[in-house]
Amino acid sequence: MFDALNRRTFACAFAAATLAATWATGAFAQATEVKIAYALARDSHYGAAADGWDKYVTETSQGKFKFTHFPSSAQGGEREVIEGLQLGTGVQAVVVSSGALSNFVPEIGVTDIPFLFRDLTHARAVLDGPIGEGILEKFRDRELIALAWGEQGFRHITNNRQPIEKPEDLAGLKIRTMENPVHIAAFKTAGAAPTPMSWPEVIPALQQGAIDGQENPLSVIVSAKLWEVQKYLTVSGHVYSPAMLIVAPSFWESLSEDEQKIFADGALKGKEAMRAFVDASEKNGVEKAKASGMQVNVLSDEQKAAFQKSIQSAYDGYYKTYTKELVDQIIATK
Ligand code: PAF
Q1: Which pLDDT tens digit goes with each residue over 272-326?
Q2: Where does the secretion signal sit in this chain (predicted)?
Q3: Least crowded by CB within 10 Å, which of 33, 65, 117, 271?
Q4: Which domains does the chain possess?
Q5: Tell me: the pLDDT tens digits for 257-272?
Q6: Would you give the DSSP letter of residue 81?
Q7: C-beta 77 within 6 A of ligand 1
């Protein structure tokens, strides 16, 4: 009897040790695959967010989840990957820009209003506060689980025609915008010829001369080496450009409460990594663009004010859609 007890004790200890070793090495026989898609390369701010999220979830779940990355629009444009999330037919997770999201959750469009945010500190305070939280909540009504705000930085104009110094320089400029009604209205009002298209089409369109320019933050300009296809960079900072870390509702519902918490906390790690990357890009992006051959002009506060004045009538439309009260609340946020 003593022997039988010993054998059972040994068998239990062996099973526990094997399980512990499996958890420790993360060698789950059947790790659940999490496909994650984003528009830029793995070494961009998008990759930083996805890696931060991946690392936290993989470590905290002890290997129960395994991320497979699809960078550089490998799963299609942002609109397509968002549709796939909603339908549960695509990847399980994405990091996407606010630009494409306005077509799914119109409330996010308020964050795209030009010259709304003073600086990154202001933008982060709004998004991390009740206004940002309220917008995240709206995603649930549209079959999307938005777990955290990401970030890209302030958007600037690049083109092949001339330096943009005053609103008149935009006249007739064929500028690619995101498929975003707020941006399209602003550039139309300023006298440009906005040409909305999805990101994977942009570099070929610039190469072929189908468009003169585009606008994106330094994080994107540097990651995508836009100097290979663009001569002039105007540091206009006309729009703050948030991004989001989102999962598919079908995937979310398949998780236990503890696992949902791991994914939500991991998304916050992704957000921090993305913001740290953007901070670095904002510091060294202009120098990098210059060193790579771009001709750079930085708009002064007076010049920016002239651009803002030139799109004044677009604000009437923004107030109608998002309410002046909300815009004022954002401006008043410290
Ligand atoms: O311009 C865009 O479409 C976005 O900023 C990009 C480059 C896809 C990153 O989200």
Answers
A1: 999 999 999 999 999 999 999 999 999 999 999 999 999 999 999 999 999 999 9
A2: 1-29
A3: 33
A4: 31-332 (3.40.190.170)
A5: 999 999 999 999 999 9
A6: H
A7: no
